[in-house]
Amino acid sequence: MSTKRVVIVGGGFAGLSAAYTLMKQGVTPLLLESQDHVGGRGSGEKVDGFSLDMGAFVFTSTYDTAFRICEELGLPLTPSQMKFGHYRNGRWVTTTPDQSLWNFLRHLRTAVTMGFLSPAGMRAGSKVMKEIHRQAAYMSFASDSPLAEIDDDESFGDYLERLRVPEKLQVTLRGPLDMVLGDPLPAGQALMRAYIGETMLSAGRVYMPERGIGSLSAALADACSDAIRVSTPVRRVIVADGTATGVVVDGETIEADAIISAVPGTKVPDLIPGLPPETLRALGMVNYSTGCRVVIGLDHAPLPPGWHGALYPEDDDTPLLLDRTAFLPACAPPGKSILDLLIGRDRARELIPLDDDEIKRELLGTVRRKAPPGSAVPGDDEGLFYRVYRWEEALCMGTPGMLAALAKIPEQIAGRIDNLFLAGDYMGIPSVNGALSSGHRAATRAADLLASRA
Description:
Blueprint: E1 5-9, H1 13-24, E2 28-32, E3 44-47, E4 50-53, E5 59-60, H2 64-72, E6 77-81, E7 84-88, E8 91-95, H3 101-106, H4 108-113, H5 119-134, H6 156-162, H7 167-180, H8 189-201, E9 205-209, H9 214-223, E10 228-229, E11 234-240, E12 243-249, E13 252-255, E14 258-261, H10 268-271, H11 277-283, E15 291-298, E16 309-311, E17 320-323, H12 324-327, E18 337-344, H13 345-351, H14 356-369, E19 385-391, H15 402-406, H16 409-414, E20 420-422, H17 432-452
Parallel strand pairs: 1-2, 1-14, 2-10, 7-16, 14-20
Antiparallel strand pairs: 3-4, 5-9, 6-9, 7-8, 11-12, 12-13, 15-18, 15-19, 16-17, 17-18
Helix pairs in contact: 1-9, 1-17, 6-8
């Protein structure tokens, strides 16, 4: 190991990826995490033989860095194609990722209900899909995705209006984004279209470690255990004469030869003094959705046979439902199931202050009023156990032009504080893969800098 030390602030996926990369390159990292565990929004929990995910829950087909790290750590991936129920106009319809003509004809009623077959819907839908296919190379969450190149000042809402997408079809296009990400309309069109396009172009194929994404953060933590200090909040990065010299934690100053900030983008300006004005302006474009997740262990399947999840895109107070064991059978003991209920936006902010039991009752009550036919949604007091996870900052959304502005930050900082590096989902294409990739990039640059000074 090199005697040079790189301090990493933050133990989410970006920080863990940075520590893992540095250790592979023979550089000594010290990862400081304010919470009592690492993993951040990618954390997991084990309860009575069940494997739960607290936050992130799926990889899409272009998650190259995530796939590589899973392979290196010996985590098998489980592929899946999603079948969802959608509650629209007072009735349930189902969608599958199969884009064949035969499948389209079999689901004509669904296409009508979701707004694809009206004259206006056909015109607008055709424009949306043609543009996604034309820009297929950009519709990616890979480590080298060029998506920032088409990120301009147009919001997703303005984009839908410009293409004259009728309201019924708008609900279809933004519904999954609404329920998982938060309000997509003010966000940049490039990022929101990438969520739609990446799913469409990959025929809805997703992948997950067989025991959930939390197993990846746990494996990274195990691989980097000698470098991790938890319950150690960093108060400030010390910058003097254009050099990051260390960090201030309670009761001590820790010196460093290089520093990687792997905290959410909204926390960076208060953590690091002396950032260039253009960097601060770019960071000011970063924002996160709010989310709340209830996880219930069951002794029966909660959704109709074959369903992976259920959406209520017309209802802001009703959560997205996921049968985790339809995706990942190994996450539960034989014959058992996991039901996840996810809610965002204003409803999540209303729920977060409530007690766990009250949050569970509120969400289950709204679901039972419009439960899918053939489902077995549990009663308030049913279930083997339950957990509630609250995320004040859940998923990076960002304003129009955020990706393009953030892509310039490494060059801006290199000219002012050359041994400081930023990592996090906001420094890539916001996602688990973006966080992992940004941590890898920051660590590689830090290692290269230290090698050049050896």
